Amino acid sequence: MRFTRNKKTDSRFNNKSTIRPLFKRKKFCRFTAEGIKHIDYKNVDLLKDFIAENGKIIPARITGTKSFYQRQLNVAIERARFLALLPYTDRH
């Protein structure tokens, strides 16, 4: 026997945490705004802004970086990791 759900009585749809904020900041490419043509792997302070606490590279859909610069960013972070300028994980 199959049960049907009613959206009004289902607790999943009545959760107040699903309400979205009224104002959402528009994402923009930081490299385009600053006029950066090439991302340098030696600029560790810039690269750290695009790495999460656990060491993963933050995706472009979250940072708002254009795909052209996201590819350069990935290469620069990998080079900096290889030269031990950046850690691979948070445990180093």
Explain this structure to me?
There is one protein chain. With 92 residues, the protein is mainly alpha-helical. The chain has a domain at 27-82: 30s Ribosomal Protein S18, CATH 4.10.640. Helix content is 33%, strand content 0%. The chain is built from four helices and no strands. The chain has helices at 30-34, 44-48, 60-63, 67-82. The longest helix is centred in the C-terminal third of the chain and has 16 residues, at 67-82. It is elongated and about 60 Å long. The N and C termini lie far apart (55 Å).
Short overview:
This protein has helices spanning 30-34, 44-48, 60-63, 67-82. It is mainly α and 92 residues long.
Describe the secondary structure blueprint for this structure.
Layout: H1 30-34, H2 44-48, H3 60-63, H4 67-82
User: Structural class of the helix and strand makeup?
Assistant: mainly alpha
CATH architecture of the domain at 27-82: Irregular
Quaternary assembly: single chain
Total beta strand runs: 0
* Low-pLDDT sequence parts: none
Shape: elongated
CATH fold node name of the domain at 27-82: 30s Ribosomal Protein S18
Strand/helix succession: HHHH
For the sheet with most strands, the description reads:
none
Distance between the termini: 55 Å
Number of helices: 4
